[in-house]
Description:
Blueprint: H1 10-27, H2 31-37, H3 43-50, H4 69-81, H5 86-92, H6 95-98, H7 100-105, H8 108-119, E1 125-128, E2 144-148, E3 151-162, E4 169-175, E5 184-190, E6 196-201, E7 212-223, E8 227-228, H9 234-270, E9 272-273, E10 276-277, H10 282-310, H11 316-341, H12 351-359, H13 369-379
Parallel strand pairs: 1-4
Antiparallel strand pairs: 2-3, 3-7, 4-5, 5-8, 6-7, 9-10
Helix pairs in contact: 1-4, 4-9, 9-10, 9-11, 9-12, 10-11, 11-12, 11-13
Amino acid sequence: xxxxxxxxxxxxxxxxxxxxxxxxxxxxxxxxxxxxxxxxxxxxxxxxxxxxxxxxxxxxxxxxxxxxxxxxxxxxxxxxxxxxxxxxxxxxxxxxxxxxxxxxxxxxxxxxxxxxxxxxxxxxxxxxxxxxxxxxxxxxxxxxxxxxxxxxxxxxxxxxxxxxxxxxxxxxxxxxxxxxxxxxxxxxxxxxxxxxxxxxxxxxxxxxxxxxxxxxxxxxxxxxxxxxxxxxxxxxxxxxxxxxxxxxxxxxxxxxxxxxxxxxxxxxxxxxxxxxxxxxxxxxxxxxxxxxxxxxxxxxxxxxxxxxxxxxxxxxxxxxxxxxxxxxxxxxxxxxxxxxxxxxxxxxxxxxxxxxxxxxxxxxxxxxxxxxxxxxxxxxxxxxx
Length: 385
């Protein structure tokens, strides 16, 4: 089995091992059923919280377990190495995109009402930015919120919103000002608010156990105090968190790839063809070695960018490129894993088949590769003079 542990402190190695042990105990026996059911049991959040794994990277003063992004990376590496699906990672840790803006700029009331209960496993939050007609172009959203006395009245729709079906609240990007990035705010909308509905639960190629919804806002009224931070500053709060989200997706990418490598190595060692193990063929060994090389490169680049971000450097372009490197690795390695498994790799009962479906979302979610490449080009000074 291939594992990468260099770069971690003793404490981070222990955290990674805790994540692996938790997976074997609490995830492996149930994951296939969760994937079939299309849902993660709500009590799973409590299990994560009880194990001290739900609030890693979130300050203790708001109910988290402390630590920084590198601790999150070590934990997630353990989860993925032990076999988490993309849907489980996205669904169990949606708060990684739902609450950071509240932690950063929200009032004490918002933190007490939403952040602390999420980190104790009692509430599930989600983040709604994408709309039916607006994907990676965040500045073009059209869902509008108009102030009416001490309330906001919201009208519009959101699409592809992770954990919104079972979620208890949605941190929603809305237009409160003029066109473009300067007119966007963030408002928390609790589930059950009149006029706020999940129009439908979406069926997806992968991420099956992660619920994904289309949302409708029809004269939804929420208190003015549910505004996150300052009015018309929402785009900047969102942009501040994009680096972390893209590093998180890069971690998922090389995590899927490493898991696929290990599953495929075991299969090639155990599977006999033409009187010898598959791994005895030079072409197979060459593929396995190339899979290893790509995983190692993606991991090194991702963790370097994460370390630089923790150190306070601006790594917006580098995070875009780390995500692309890791998710391209995931797509290629998962494809080779299915190929080397042969017909068995094409069956739903095969774990590599699940990874093959799950990784296909990664070059799309969190900013499509094409959009992020163009953003990186501009930040690196490669644009038109």
